[in-house]
Design brief:
By secondary structure, the protein is of the alpha/beta class. It has one domain: YqgF/RNase H-like domain (Nucleotidyltransferase, domain 5), CATH 3.30.420. The protein is 47% helix and 25% strand. It is built from four helices and five strands; from the N terminus they run E-E-E-H-E-H-E-H-H. Strands 3-2-1-4-5 form a five-stranded mixed sheet, sandwiched between helices. Strand 4, helix 2 and strand 5 form a beta-alpha-beta unit. Helix 1 crosses helix 2 and helix 3 packs across helix 4. The longest helix has 24 residues. The radius of gyration is 14 Å and the shape is globular.
């Protein structure tokens, strides 16, 4: 039995980090970074769904330490709505607390240069969020 993948999206005002699960929903890997331009985003999401046999989308929900939604949560919810409408797939929201900080620490520990960190941090944050989501489902 082959399952579809789960795609994770890490919302940002300029960039959207994308991660993909494996077909068995065990691991999440950084995939790519999309421009957050709403005019192109729907088409890019459809492309990713088709190219990767995606069956579900998880969007990171920015919350603070107390678990309350942050200012960016509205943008993440809008991204979830757009993803649902563009792809017709089920979309869930997942707590993304600490994902960007964890991604930054991972890249610093790996001695990745600042320019390269900016290029990859969003997709690594998406992978951390998606992996947490996958782990919580087991």
């Amino acid at each position: 039995m082959i399952l579809g993948r789960i795609m994770g999206l890490d919302y940002g005002t300029r960039r959207i980090g994308v991660a993909m699960s494996d077909a068995l929903h065990l691991t999440a890997q950084p995939h790519e970074v999309l421009d957050a331009d709403p005019g192109q985003l729907a088409a890019e999401l459809r492309r990713l769904v088709n190219e990767n046999d995606v069956e579900m989308i998880v969007v990171g929900l920015p919350v603070n330490l107390a678990g309350e939604e942050t200012f960016s949560a509205g943008g993440a919810r809008e991204l979830a709505r757009l993803a649902s409408e563009a792809t017709g797939l089920p979309v869930e929201m997942a707590d993304e607390r600490y994902t960007t900080r964890s991604a930054e620490q991972t890249l610093l520990a790996a001695d990745v240069r600042r320019t390269r960190r900016r290029q990859v941090i969003d997709k690594i944050a998406a992978a951390i969020m998606l992996q947490s989501f996958l782990d919580a489902r087991r």
